[in-house]
Design a protein that fits this description.
Radius of gyration: 19 Å
Largest sheet: none
Number of strands: 0
Distance between the termini: 7 Å
Oligomer: single chain
Mean pLDDT: 78
Number of domains: 1
Order of helices and strands: HHHHHHHHHH
Number of helices: 10
Helix content: 55-70%
Shape: elongated
Length: 242
C-alpha cells in the first residue's frame, strides 16, 4: 500500500469528521446556551473548542483500542489484512444504510437536564430537529446555574458522545501503523474543531437558516456511502499497486 491509499483514507476521515460536526448536536447547544446566558462570541467559541477537545479525546481513545486490535490482526493476516479491512468497511457501510432505512438515521445523545418523548424515530416529527426541542427543556441555560455548571454540562454532553462514525476510519488506517493512527487523530481533531467552531460562529452571527435538518436525518446514509466507497477504493488501489 502507498501514500495514495493513506491520502484517500485521510480525505474520507476529514469528510466524515467535518460533516459530523455540522449536525446540530455539535453547535446548536452552544448557541442556545450562549444566548440564554449572555455570553460573547469569544467565550462561546472557547467553550465550544473546550467541549470539542473532550469529544476528540474520547474518540481518539476508542480509536487507539481499535488500532491496537487491528495491529494484532494485521500480524496474523499479513497481506490479506487490507482486503479484510475493505470488506469490513463495506459491511459497516451496509449497516449504516440499514439503520438509515429503518428510520434511525441519527444517533441521539441526550442533553444533560433535557428530556424528550421516546419513539421509533426519537419521538419527533420528521421536519423537526430534536436538539432545539430538547435544549428548550434543558437546565444548561438556566440563570440558576453557574457558568461553570453550564460549561461542564456542555463538555460532558460532547465528551460522552464520541464520533462513532470516525471509528471505522481508524480501522482502515491500521495498515500504516502508528503513523496512520497519529495522522488520522490529527485529522479528526482539525476537522471536528474547525466544523464545530465554524457552524457555531455562523449561527451566532445569524447565518443559521441552513437546511441542516435533512442532513441530520440522513447522517447514517451519508456515512454508509462514504464507508462503502472507501472500502471499494482500498480494494481497487491495493490491487493496482499490489
Amino acid at each position: 500500500m502507498n501514500s495514495t491509499v493513506l491520502t484517500t483514507i485521510a480525505a474520507t476521515g476529514f469528510t466524515v469528521a467535518f460533516f459530523h460536526a455540522a449536525i446540530p448536536t455539535h453547535w446548536l447547544p452552544f448557541v442556545l446556551v450562549s444566548r440564554a446566558r449572555g455570553w460573547g462570541h469569544g467565550k462561546t467559541l472557547a467553550v465550544t473548542t473546550f467541549a470539542g477537545l473532550g469529544h476528540v479525546a474520547l474518540t481518539s481513545l476508542l480509536g487507539l483500542l481499535i488500532a491496537w486490535f487491528g495491529f494484532q490482526l494485521d500480524e496474523r493476516l499479513g497481506k490479506l489484512f487490507p482486503i479484510a479491512a475493505a470488506v469490513a468497511l463495506i459491511g459497516i457501510g451496509g449497516y449504516f444504510w440499514w439503520r438509515q432505512i429503518r428510520g434511525s438515521g441519527l444517533c441521539h445523545h441526550p442533553i444533560p437536564g433535557g428530556h424528550h418523548e421516546a419513539s421509533a424515530e426519537c419521538g419527533h416529527e420528521e421536519d423537526h430537529s430534536h436538539w432545539e426541542h430538547e435544549m428548550s427543556d434543558s437546565e444548561l441555560g438556566s440563570s440558576k446555574r453557574s457558568d461553570w455548571a453550564a460549561i461542564s454540562g456542555l463538555f460532558l454532553m460532547l465528551t460522552l458522545s464520541p464520533c462513532e462514525g470516525f471509528l471505522p476510519v481508524y480501522l482502515s488506517g491500521v495498515q500504516f501503523g502508528w503513523t496512520g493512527f497519529v495522522v488520522l487523530s490529527l485529522i479528526l481533531a482539525v476537522a471536528t474543531l474547525a466544523g464545530m467552531t465554524l457552524f457555531t460562529l455562523c449561527a451566532l452571527v445569524g447565518l443559521r437558516r441552513w437546511e441542516l435538518k435533512s442532513f441530520e436525518r440522513w447522517e447514517s446514509g451519508l456515512l454508509g456511502t462514504l464507508f462503502c466507497v472507501l472500502g471499494i477504493l482500498i480494494l481497487v488501489l491495493g490491487r493496482s499497486h499490489g
